[in-house]
Amino acid sequence: MSFKIVCAACNTQIGHGEVADAEQLGIEHAPHCTATEEEHAKALTDIKFRNIVQGLGL
After folding, report:
1. pTM of the entire predicted model
2. Contact between residue 5 and residue 15 where contact means Cβ atoms under 8 Å apart
3. What is the pLDDT of residues 13-50, one digit of tens each?
4. What's the first-to-final CA gap in the chain, in angstroms?
């Protein structure tokens, strides 16, 4: 199943793909993000955390 992937920091759609694709898309989006570097870094941390939790089945 493909999902619309949105940057949580600036609310911009950055692509479509699986949940696992979100982290890479977020990294590639960083230079174009209109949010602060800190806000974007926090959004990437949140993505990583969600991927870990989903991987553990929690």
Report:
1. 0.76
2. yes
3. 999 988 778 889 999 999 999 999 999 999 999 988 88
4. 20
